[in-house]
Design a protein that fits this description.
The complex is a heterodimer of chains A (143) and B (463).
Chain A lengths: L6 E6 L7 H12 L3 E4 L6 H10 L4 E6 L4 H5 L2 H7 L7 E5 L8 H10 L4 E3 L5 H11 L8
Chain B lengths: L2 E7 L3 E8 L4 E9 L6 H16 L6 E6 L6 E5 L3 H14 L3 E6 L5 H10 L3 E4 L9 H10 L8 E3 L3 H10 L5 E3 L13 H18 L11 E5 H14 L10 E6 L4 E6 L9 E4 L6 E6 L8 H8 L1 H8 L3 H13 L9 H22 L2 E7 L2 E7 L8 E5 L1 H4 L4 H5 L17 E5 L5 H8 L3 H11 L1 E6 L1
Parallel strand pairs in B: 1-4, 4-10, 5-6, 5-7, 7-8, 8-9, 11-17, 13-16, 17-18
Antiparallel strand pairs in B: 1-2, 2-3, 11-12, 12-14, 15-16, 18-19
Helix pairs in contact in B: 4-5, 7-14, 8-11, 9-11, 14-15
Classes of the chains: A alpha/beta (143), B alpha/beta (463).
Chain lengths: 143, 463
């Protein structure tokens, strides 16, 4: 029987117009069997949340390539809570901070902001897919 | 000669247009007070008598009608997120020719229900959730609606997963299931819902509003008047087989109580460096400004523009503007009748009505700087390349300055973010034929289009 596909809402946050990685991720997630709502580039926190409500999303995937991700992501978990999306898994990846910083510190800060996972530059789409499967308890249907 | 009669049952006037479809010309027009309270036939017969006094006895082969009588088609909508399915429901209803009297989002509250009972909608449009998405909200709202009286027809056009369940919850109600107005995020699919709305209007509303008495005279087709106008402007723009249209256009109808704006254009971003945000809008889009009108809603115009601006455009002192506006509110049937002050005021009010209504209808563009350089964010339709404007409404017809008023629909350096046409030809529908031609277009599209091209009066070029 066809299991209902897990729904992801994804996009590039803030005033960031990097479109290529967004398209690659979209294809990778779709290929991996997710139903993907792709919001494209320059996505505001509110847009992820609105789309997640309408589509009853299972997780939110935030990308950021231009270094301002930390500012852009602030308060997003709280807004999700307000909007009735309490506990929705959120992951973030890309060049999410400026300059060379130890990624453990970066990861810790994003986790404090309420993200379930944070990924450094150069992460393969497979790593994100793996994390999503784990967060969404999809271990059973691994290929 | 093959005369066809086209009837528009308005809330105050019943307007008739007689057309010879063989010669492709208008034989005559006439109008008389609508008398819904007593008998709609009375107004119709009066108008018919008037018409035939001008044209001589006509043997109509067909007659078609549209109606906005008795408050028009009053609709209430409920969606999930206001900017998404909430907006989709509103756009669908407006495009179907409805007067949208209530728009709700998220879960309906007990207060909302009381309001809805008071609003007495002719049709309720219940939506929410993309297909396979949220079902909780639409089911909740169906359960809430099921508790109220009196019942009204409900069109269910939300998440398809929940459609049947909604129908079961609303057992005993007249329900109609349509495809989701927003099946996927950012995809608007409203046509079938709009057809269903018109069908219900046809079957039910007309009888409820005493229009059935006139029905034996009609061959076929009844639609809400705004829906007929939308059909007409779409035909005028796009053309049909063997007859080209005039291209992308906007149409503005400034009324006494409301101002309607129609646009027929794609309106998507022109440049690669522009990102589109929000719900994509319908190719043929209608909006209604309920607070912008020349008489009943004159206060809305004053509120929108401010006394200062009206005073500037009309070249009347502010105190005098206030006095005259009060007068208009008290006497909604007042016309300038050659009085220079009142003419100047009506000019200013009409200009602002056009400006405000088109500004609200058109999209906006915002310039932002990113690390990649300058970028633009567009929401709503980009109408800057539209080159045709059609205007109608008493204040634009009974004046020599039509194109000056219409120019207020155009792009202005004072509000550069508003994506209104940069320059345009101005056309005037001087004898209110748009609704009639929309009706005619269902059967004789080429004829309707040729008549419009002939009858609409070119009224200059503005930039």
């Amino acid at each position: 029987m066809d299991e209902k596909k897990k729904v992801l809402v994804m996009g590039v946050i803030g005033a960031d117009v990097h479109a290529v990685g967004n398209k690659i991720l979209y294809h990778a997630f779709t290929e991996a069997g997710f139903e993907v709502v792709n919001l494209g580039v320059m996505v505001a926190q509110e847009e992820y949340i609105a789309a997640a409500i309408e589509s009853a999303a299972d997780a939110i995937v935030v990308s950021s390539l231009y270094g301002q991700g930390e500012l852009d992501c602030r308060g997003m978990r709280e807004k999700c809570d307000e909007a009735g999306l309490k506990g929705i898994p959120m992951i973030v990846g890309g060049n999410i901070v400026i300059g060379k910083q130890k990624f453990e510190d970066v990861e810790r800060r994003f986790k404090e902001m309420g993200f379930d996972r944070a990924f450094p530059p150069g992460t393969s789409p497979e790593a994100a897919i793996e994390a999503l499967r784990e967060l969404l308890h999809m271990d059973g249907d691994r290929k | 000669m093959k005369p066809v009669l086209l009837i528009d049952f308005g809330s105050t006037y019943t307007k008739l247009t007689a057309v010879d479809v063989d010669a492709e010309e208008i034989l005559g027009t006439a109008s008389s007070y609508t008398t819904v309270q007593t008998d709609i036939n009375e107004g119709l017969e009066n108008a018919l008598r008037q018409l035939q006094e001008k044209t001589g006895k006509l043997d109509f082969v067909k007659s078609y009608a549209c109606s906005s009588a008795a408050g028009g088609l009053r609709m209430v909508t409920s969606g999930l997120v206001p900017e998404l399915t909430g907006e989709a429901a509103k756009l669908a209803s407006l495009g179907a020719g409805a007067k949208v009297v209530g728009v709700y989002s998220f879960q309906l509250t007990e207060d909302d229900l009381e309001e809805i009972q008071g609003l007495k909608p002719d049709i309720f449009l219940l939506v929410g959730g993309t297909d396979g998405g949220n079902t909780e909200n639409i089911l909740y709202n169906a359960r809430m609606l099921a508790t109220i009286e009196p019942k009204f027809p409900i069109v269910i056009a939300g998440n398809r997963t929940a459609a049947r369940e909604c129908e079961r919850i609303l057992a005993g109600w007249e329900t109609h299931i349509c495809p989701n107005v927003m099946p996927k995020f950012g995809v608007l699919k409203i046509e079938e819902t709009q057809n269903k709305i018109r069908e219900i209007f046809l079957n039910r509303i007309i009888q409820a509003k005493g229009l059935s008495k006139a029905a034996d005279l009609l061959s076929d087709i009844m639609m809400p008047t705004p829906s007929a106008v939308l059909k007409a402007v779409e035909l005028l723009s796009q053309g049909c087989e063997d007859e080209p249209g005039i291209g992308d256009l906007i149409a503005v109808d400034v009324g006494g109580a409301t101002t309607d704006v129609y646009s027929v254009a794609d309106g998507m971003p022109e440049h690669m460096n522009t990102v589109y945000k929000g719900l994509p809008e319908p190719f043929a889009k209608r909006t209604v400004e309920g607070d912008i009108g020349m008489r009943y809603s004159v206060q809305g115009i004053v509120d929108a523009a401010g006394l200062q601006r009206i005073s500037q455009i009309s070249r009347l002192p502010k105190d005098r503007v206030t006095e005259l506006v009060e007068e208009l509110k008290a006497h909604t049937d007042q016309l300038p009748n050659g009085d220079s002050e009142r003419e100047r005021l009506d000019f200013a009010l009409a200009a602002i009505a056009v400006e405000e209504a088109v500004t609200r209808h058109a999209g906006t563009i915002e310039e932002t700087y990113t690390l990649m350089g300058q970028t633009f964010v567009q929401s709503g339709k980009n109408l800057t390349k539209v080159r045709q404007i059609v205007v109608t409404g008493g204040s634009l017809i009974h004046t020599k300055e039509t194109e000056k008023i219409a120019a207020y629909a155009l792009y202005s350096p004072a509000s550069p973010a508003s994506l209104r046409p940069k320059e345009a030809d101005v056309w005037v529908d001087r004898s209110y034929i748009l609704a009639a031609m929309g009706l005619l277009s269902s059967y004789y599209p080429q004829t309707a289009l040729r008549i419009m091209k002939k009858e609409l009066e070119f009224h200059g070029y503005s930039e």
